[in-house]
Amino acid sequence: MGKPIEITDANFQEVVLSSDQPVLVDFWAEWCGPCKAIGPIVEELAGDFAGKAVIGKLDVEGNRGTAAQFGVMSIPTLLIFKDGQLVDKHVGLTSKSVLAAKLGALATVA
After folding, report:
1. Is 35 a catalytic residue?
2. Does the predicted TM-score (pTM) go above 0.90?
3. Which helix (H) or strand (E) holds 78?
4. How far apart are CA 94 and CA 78, in angstroms?
């Protein structure tokens, strides 16, 4: 149902920092094996949290400014923002249940 939003250096402020919903940003790259493994989880979360949270993916290859701004050194890195502030960070593979719990704690029930 939902699909992750493509986040870039150009739209980061608008999509992430100005959102009135929690935002999960998956920092990834095409050549990253673990990123490909977590991709389907991020897509499922986009469907599960449609209308309650914004789920997006940021390709670090073309958007190094944002990755550098938040100190992303390893990928996948998943950052969660609420009210324009970074509130959680996870580096590496993780389970859908861990990410869903973190998002669920921040998302308001529609």
Report:
1. yes
2. yes
3. strand 77-82
4. 10
